[in-house]
Structure formats: C-alpha cells, structure tokens
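Provenance and format

Records in this collection were gathered into a single text stream. Each protein contributes a sequence line and a token line. The two records reproduced below are adjacent in the stream.
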Amino acid sequence: MKKTIFIFVALLSVLGFNACSEDDDFTFVAKPNPEGIAFENTLLESYPLNAANKDNLAERFVWNATDFGVPSPVKYELQASTTESFEAQEVVAGELTATNYGVTIDYLLNLAGQAGLDNDPETDAPNTGSLYFRVKAYVGNAGGDTEQLSPVIALAVVLIEASEGEGGVEMKPQMYLVGDVTAAGWDANNNNTPLFRDGENDLMFNFTGRFAGTTETEGFKLLEVLGDWPSQWGLDDSGALSSTAILGTDPSAFPVATDGYFSLTVNKEDMTYTFEPYDASAAPSYTTIGILGDATAGGWDVDQDLTPTAFDPHVWVIEGIELTDGTVKFRAEDEWENSWGGSTPLSGQGFNDNDPDISVAAGTYNIWFNDLDGRYILIPQQ
C-alpha cells in the first residue's frame, strides 16, 4: 500500500513539473497599436528664433500614449531632421517614459543651422524654413515590429536677423500666481505676483510667501502670460506638474488647505515641483525697501522705493520704473546695513552679504523683490 501511494505522488509531481514547464514556455508577442501614435500639441504658425532668448522653451511636443499588448514598458524617442523624408535624423531625446518633451530656442537654432538657415542679412542663406519632428514608440531595445513611428510634423521657423535683434532688453519666460489663495484671486490679469525666475536656469522658478489657504479654497495655478488662461500650469490627475498645452484641457489647482507661508519651486525642464511650509516667524519686517544705482533717476544717492503688497508684506513691487544702462541694488531703510545685489541680470538672488551690483539694460520695468530670500525679478514692459 505504501509503495502504491509513493508511485501516485511521484506521478503527480511529474505532471506538475511538465505543466510548469509548459507555462514557462508561454511568450508575449509585441504588435503595433492599430490606433498608432501622433503628436497632440497645436503648433504656432511660425516660431521666431532669437539667440538672445536661446534658453527659452520654444515648443513642448506632446503625443498620445500607446502600447504593444505586452507587459513591457513602452518608451519613446523624439527625433528631428532637416528634411521631411528624414534622410538624416538625430535623436532629440530617447528612453522617454513620459509622453511629452520640451525643446529650447537654442536647440531649434542649432537645427536651423544644419538646415542651412542663418540670421545674417549679408549672406544669401535664407532665414526662414521648416524643421521636422516625429516620435518613435518602442518596447525593448530592438526595432522591427516592436516600434512605431508617428506622422512627421513641420515647424516653420524664422531666424531673427542680427540687425533686428541687436540691443534692447532680453525677453525671458515668466510665471505668475493665480487662484483664491493668492493676492490676485482667480483674476488672470490683476497685477498677479510673479514667481522669481532662477538667474542661471530660465526654466526654473521659485517663490516663498503667503498662500491664504483654507479647507474651502481651491488653491492656485500658474500663468505664463497674464490674462491668458491657455498658458496655465497646474497638476494632472496623478498630482504631477502639467499644463493646458500638455493635457489638452485645464489642469487642476495646487491645493492649499492652510493660511501660511510656503516655498514653491517649479522646474519646467524636469517637469517637477516642490511645495513646502516655510517658517517666516523670525523674518525681519522692513518699513522701506528701495532700489538705487547709476541706472536709476536718483543714482546712488536717492532710493526709488518699492511698495509692499497688502497681501504679503515681504513681497515688494515698483511698476513702470525707467532705467538706463547701468547697475542697481536693493536696500532696506535707506541704509546699507541690509542690502541685496546679484551677479545675474533680470532675475536672481541676493544674500545681504556685500553682493555685487545687478547689471541692467535701458528700459521700462516692473520690479519685484522678496525680502524673505533676497530674490528679485525685473520684468520688461513693452
């Protein structure tokens, strides 16, 4: 009897092993998605390219997600060419898992140069033309049936000729606060407080200040252009940084449930953000903050006073100030005991530590200053 039971158990083990072996032999076959892949962003009629703004974002390419019917992650590769047939191509960015990628004016200028365009009015080379892009979706590392290409799209570019772009004030990207926890409320053109653009990275922004959140408030969003809701940024359904241009619909607001001080950072290059409480209880309170220097009407002797905002006494602004070519600094109480400068024009951060003078070009500006972190931004007014 014992021998019979042993033989029966052994037989079951063999059958089980064979079944597992057959399961192990099961394979998935990747197949192209019949719905395909295509760009979803709306292109401009033309893209003016000025070397003075080379770090600005020119276009963020957005495409639909796709799959190949296999349990492997789909990756994307944005490709560019100077010809529609893609006889020669280059990889703008590869190994992407997100369905969007931004390119700068500098990248388009380099590609335009490969296409034989230039901005020198003295040459016969044209300063207008088209640059071509497509996106590849794939699984694994191989090509063939495991990849799929989108239709090609063309960007019409115009290289600003040197004589047109010389001199003047460089135009930089901006971001402004809007929402029921901000000074402007949900009005998109209400002297909205700007974020302070990083002096070294035009795609990174910072703001430390008050947000008047409650359990009843919706929160805040960001605008690239005042009065322009299509330029808004917020959060997607997963809580990640996104925009109307990427989503094709309005993003959700950044939620704020308490009234207090917070530090916000936004990185449009990495598509990341942070939003953390900030302890401002020990921050000094100033009665005046002024800007002065040889670029101002009062020179180094008379401060041009900024005004603190009613919403947040640590954020100061002066509107429509005329500056000449030269340098400026900020200081408190018309004294040099507390003063701020910076090594980067138009935006940056001072540290109240014998900072360098800020270089400026002649023009009319709205100027904002934050005494909590010494950040400043000069916004040219056209």
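Adjacent record:
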Amino acid sequence: FNPRTGGADFVEIYNNSNHEIDLKELQLANANVVGAPANIKNVSTARLMIKPGSYWVITTNQANVKLNYQAKFPNQFVQISSLPAFNNDKGSVILLSNNQILDRLDYNAKIHHPLIQDEDGISLERVSFSVASNEPGNFKSAAATAGFATPTYKNSQELSGDENYARLLSKTFSPDGDNFEDLMILEYQVAENASLATVNIYSDKGRLIKQLLKNQTIGTNGILTWDGLTDNGQKAAIGIYVVMFDVFDLKGNVKRIKNTCVLAGKLN
C-alpha cells in the first residue's frame, strides 16, 4: 500500500480452498467513511480459474512489480486499469464476490516492523490463513531477505514450524566455477516471524571474513549463500570457516547457531 517512488500498488489473492476459483467472480474495494465497501473494481473481465494453493497478483502495472520484486510465477498476474485507492497511512482492502464480503484487512502503517525506518516498497504479508485477516499480528512486514515482497508465491512471514535451525547443505564447497558445490548454502528456519538476523563468517582464527546479514528482517525460512569472496571482494583462502547465525525476535529471545564449513580448492 506504500510503493517505492515510481512503483505500483498490488494486491495478492490466495486460493485457500480445495477447489478452483474464478477471478471473474471477485471484486476489490476500499472502505468509505462509514466502513462500507466503496470504489469496487472487478478483478478480471474474463473467466480466469486459479488453482488451490496458488497466489495471484492484481495490479495496474505488472511490469513494474516484476521489475521491483522477484515474481516466482510471472504468469500469475492480472493487470487491471485501476485499483481502489489504498492510502499510505491507513485504509481497508476488501475482497468481495457478488457484493458479499469474503475477506477484509483494515491496515495502518503501525503494522510494519517497529525497527523499519523506511516503509516504502515493503509489503504487508499474511502470517496465517487459518485465522482472520484482522487478527492482531496476522500481517507482518515482508522480510528483507525475500526482497520485501513475494508476489505470486508463499509469504516470507508465513508460519513454518516450531523448530529453529540453520544448517549447511554441504560441509564443503569449492567456488572454482565448475558448477559443482560452487556456493556455501545455509538453509534456516525460525519459529517466530518478524525476526532479525546477523550472519557472519569467520576464519578458524576468529577473523571476520564476510558479513552475509546485519540486523536484517528474515523470513520464517529461507536460504543464504556465500560465494567464497570476502567483504573486500577478494577470494577467501582455502581452509576452515565458522558460520555464526544470530537471530533475535521482538520478544527479546536470542539464539545463536554455529556451523563450520571447508572452502576447498585445487592445490598448485
């Protein structure tokens, strides 16, 4: 609801049913001064069936959205001539079918993560589809590690599980360009959404080699990679490295997960 300068608003619709839904039967609206649906816009002028579990983006400029964010499924866009106005400070997004309200989000800028200083271009994402949209805490700022929006695919702040972990897919990598284990790959999951993380890579002597993240908002799960370059852009030496994954949430909980990896290479 607050795009970057020159950006375009978009609304994402998720099919939470076990059957296909025709977007032609849906409308988007905002709310008038008494809270009733207003400025109603049809989502699609033609029959368009969307599969269960799929995410579709409604916007006036799909090229702009794709330019600013990664769209995993670029064909799951619907471009319409105009959207209802969604103000930057607060407003309502209402989804209807045949003038009957299916879902409604009453938003304001305070929903965003309290440590975010510039909210431009950061989407609000739904955490759970099993509780009401307006349930407190059910919308959070999209994670920085996900590019601040995830149009057409799973929301970065959706709940993933109760376990916290950060683990390497392989203990060894060799960034030599042979397309085999060229990257160190760290997959993670955190139980609390809206968490922040700092991820540093140290030599076996304790010297900071590379900072992957510094107090950035992260999704509830994801992947981080290291290409073997230092913060100065130099190739790191062959050897053992320590990967420190520090994550903290707004409740004050802090967790540190340590991994070690080997940067391998050919010896002359």
